[in-house]
Amino acid sequence: MMVKINGRPETLPQKVLTLEELVAGMGLNPERLVIEHNLEIVPREAWPGIRIQGNDNIEIVSFVGGG
């Protein structure tokens, strides 16, 4: 399935169905992320219920602490 992640075309395996599964499959720490799905920011608790469809646009922003 073809989607755009952070502006780049990506092919996802068919087994990736939700935003939660996408984050887990990418090995990202969900506590440090914000996800925009088709121009809408999605609260973390809603990720399991948001199904990814072909041609979706997903932006993943990671917060990094520093000093």
Report on the structure:
- By secondary structure, the protein is mainly beta.
- It contains one helix and five strands.
- It has one helix at residues 19-25, and strands at residues 2-5, 8-11, 33-37, 40-42, 57-62.
- The mean pLDDT is 93.
Q: Secondary-structure map with pairings?
A:
Elements lengths: L1 E4 L2 E4 L7 H7 L7 E5 L2 E3 L14 E6 L5
Parallel strand pairs: 1-5
Antiparallel strand pairs: 1-2, 3-4, 3-5
List keywords for this structure.
67 residues, mainly beta, Ubiquitin-like (UB roll), 5 strands
- Give the beta-strand count: 5
Rg, rounded, reads 12 Å
CATH class: Alpha Beta
Tell me the number of helical segments per DSSP (H or I, 4 or more residues long): 1
Helix content, binned percent: 10-25%
Structural class: mainly beta
CATH superfamily: Beta-grasp domain
- What coarse outline follows from CA principal-axis ratios? globular
Helices and strands, in order, run as EEHEEE
Strand neighbour order, sheet with most strands: 2-1-5-3-4
Q: What is the CATH fold-level name?
A: Ubiquitin-like (UB roll)
**Poorly predicted parts:** none
How many structural domains?
Answer: 1
Q: What is the end-to-end distance?
A: 40 Å
Largest sheet: 5 strands, mixed
